[in-house]
Amino acid sequence: MFCLRSTRAYHVSQGIPPPLRGVKILDLTRVLAGPTATMLLADLGADVIKVEEVLRGDDTQNAPSGAPPESAYFIAVNRNKRSITVNFKTPDGLEIMKKLIRQSDVLVENFVAGKLASMGLGWEDCKEINPRLIYTSITGYGQTGPYRQAAGYDVVIEAEAGLMHITGEPDRPPVKVGVACTDIWTGLYAHGAIMAAILSREKTGKGVWIDCNLFESQLAGLANIASNYLVAGQEASRHGTAHPSIVPYQVFSCKDGFLMIGAGNDKQFRLFAEKILLQPALADDPRFSSNGARVKNRAELIQIITNVLEQHNRDHWIKQFTGLGVPFGPINNIRETFEHPQAIARGAIIEIDHPRAGRLKLVAPAVTYDGKRMPVTRPPPYLSEHTSEVLSELGYTTEEIVRLRQDKVI
After folding, report:
1. Is 183 in the active site?
2. CATH number of the domain to which 153 belongs
3. Under a CB-based contact definition with an 8 Å cutoff, are residues 27 and 50 in contact?
């Protein structure tokens, strides 16, 4: 039996109908970008049917984790979904897929461009089956262009689309971001595009082909870095945790840890100099009295600050900063992050019972509606958990399902 437990402040939605209730989504995606998009849609009430490879499943199903056979990757982005396995390279499997497509509102896939079309499940094929279908392709580089058939990997796109170039210390090699943010950004873009297409279909009655890819999602994620180059021709560089044009605005070491400090304007710097550094004269020193001067004399000021902060431990400085009006934050490890009083107060962690992995803790859906979260109604599924259930809904008999399983179609 599935059970949901929560921290004391967590409230699931009661009386607020999930906005995507009644929407059926076929999820043919694997790993992170696509599953992130479909999980967000499932969180809003969509019936997401995850179509996986027979016997093998999602590439992350058996990745290392503390709760085999389900992996941490898979568990993180596959809640609220149903799992079926179908070999749609077979005639019977292809027929199952066509029946599912006929009944679905959305199909999301992340095969290399053109792969599904070669199997009879491309956009042109599917819109003939269901003209209202919203067909979403998530790839590394998009459906056109010289890289269209290249596989997309988060870390490769980080490197190729500028993010890794601006990440890391200035005198050290580039580094990747600690989480696969390009995949996650792409999932967010796909999720938003699908929501917009659902609204558009209410007006037009027609489906659409959505082309979403990691490369362009990463370009969009460059934000001000992109604008600085496109508008002013300014090449970017690595600054570690420091800000290129604001000082002090970076991580500083304490006696036993690290703090992020962002005295972003002259008023904040004056408070910082008076109350933290106990050197009020610094705020009037011509070398540091304006942000431009502080940027010019960055190295000297950073050394002064470091000398003071390294005299005490992190907790001492947290007390000194609290309520001061100068932006700051401790560099928390993951345990400290999930024990953060704000995470606890907001109910940001939920517990669920998984039929194979046991009790799991998950990050709750990040958005509330009138102070309540949409419910987590299903744990991440195990491989093929719902195949018989879904095929029965399509009209297959028990005998037919047994035969399909014997023939390794499902």
Report:
1. yes
2. 3.40.50.10540
3. yes
